[in-house]
Amino acid sequence: MSQLWDRYQTLKASQPQLRARDAAAALGVSECELVAADPAAAPLRPEWPEVLAALAPLGRVMALTRNHACVHETKGEYANVSFEGKIGIAINPVIDLRIFLFHWRHGFAVRSETPRGTQRSLQFFDRHGEAVHKVYLTADSDVAAYEALTARFSAPASELALEPPARPAAEQPDEAIDRDAFQAEWHRLNDVHAFHPFLRRWQVSRRQGFRLAPPGQAWRVREDAVEQLLRRAAATETPIMVFAGNGGMIQIHTGAVRNVQVVGDWLNVLDQNFNLHLRTDLIAEAWITRKPGDNGVVSSLELFDEAGESLATFFGERKPGRAERPEWVKLLGELPPLEQADVA
């Protein structure tokens, strides 16, 4: 591993701003392998519910969840963690998580020296070496609590065993689906949380489900519609919900967005407690959907890459049992359908 770390130090010296994920790709390894090669990274025992439940004493931290095109960062207290089997939740005003431990395999406590001082974090990875979730200490965090946590869950160094990524399952042809029956069941749904099990019963992907949706329940908009949506949400102070993540973690922001900036291919929200970084060049499809909820329709903007992987989903702020906000519906209605946009 020391040879890999030496190669990384050479690369980092030539590109100081290079992120760990990008550096790992440049070196031909997974991010998990790169972190494991760090002499300052301490392996953690895979007692994930206990580790996550022990984060509350750290105080204010930054929680980061990402996929290959979207980075979702929130700053707040990591509390109220609970599990039923391998599925967990952490519901807080800022750090709001849905946790799926089926995909968690490796964890490390990491100390990095930066121009601004020592950066301390906890980093978790799946069986392929992809980052699932990270927790970074802030200036307001309790360093002693962090040290106690890492000592409590420390594990001896061992050989890192990773599995090659599996190829995504191919979609069955749309023609193989009984569209009338599918649409009829769609209309019978009465809880937005039942939508994923509904798709699973039909063995269709989320994007394919939108293609098969009843008329007026799902339609494509331009891939850059998300920028228009975020800018108008900021201008009108419309509170929204932003879901992003991967197979092991979904992280949620609820509230207003204010500072929307574009830097190259990255669309960013740069607010005090919430940052979003979205690679717009990797958005292949954008869909507006209307799903039956517990109190009327629940509308969203959903983004996918070329392979149909979900990148991020946007809702209006909404409490269970309440209808969605009319100002959110208005914002979505201002996004022209793809066909209309292309003609224009």
List keywords for this structure.
single chain, 344 residues, alpha+beta, Heme iron utilization protein-like fold, 9-stranded antiparallel beta sheet, 18 strands, globular, Hemin-degrading factor, Heme_Transport_Util_sf, HemS/ChuX_dom
Can you describe what's shown?
- Strand 7 (106-114) and strand 8 form a beta hairpin.
- The chain has 344 residues and is of the alpha+beta class.
- It has eleven helices and 18 strands.
- The protein folds into two domains: 2-76 and 105-153, HemS/ChuS/ChuX like domains (Heme iron utilization protein-like fold); 174-343, Heme iron utilization protein-like fold, CATH 3.40.1570.10.
- 27% of the residues lie in helices and 35% in strands.
- The chain has helices at 2-14, 20-27, 31-36, 48-53, 143-153, 179-188, 195-202, 206-211, 225-236, 326-333, 338-343; strands at residues 41-43, 59-66, 70-77, 81-84, 87-90, 96-100, 106-114, 117-125, 131-141, 218-221, 240-246, 249-255, 260-263, 266-270, 274-279, 285-293, 296-304, 310-316.
- Residues 28-153, 203-335 form the Haemin-degrading HemS/ChuX domain.
Question: How many DSSP-defined strands?
Answer: 18
Report helical residue fraction: 25-40%
Largest sheet: 9 strands, antiparallel
Distance between the termini: 55 Å
Query: What class do helices, strands and sheet pairing give?
Result: alpha+beta
* CATH level 1 name of the largest domain: Alpha Beta
Low-confidence stretches: none
H/E topology pattern = HHHEHEEEEEEEEHHHHEHEEEEEEEEHH
Strand order across the biggest sheet?
1-7-8-9-2-3-15-14-13
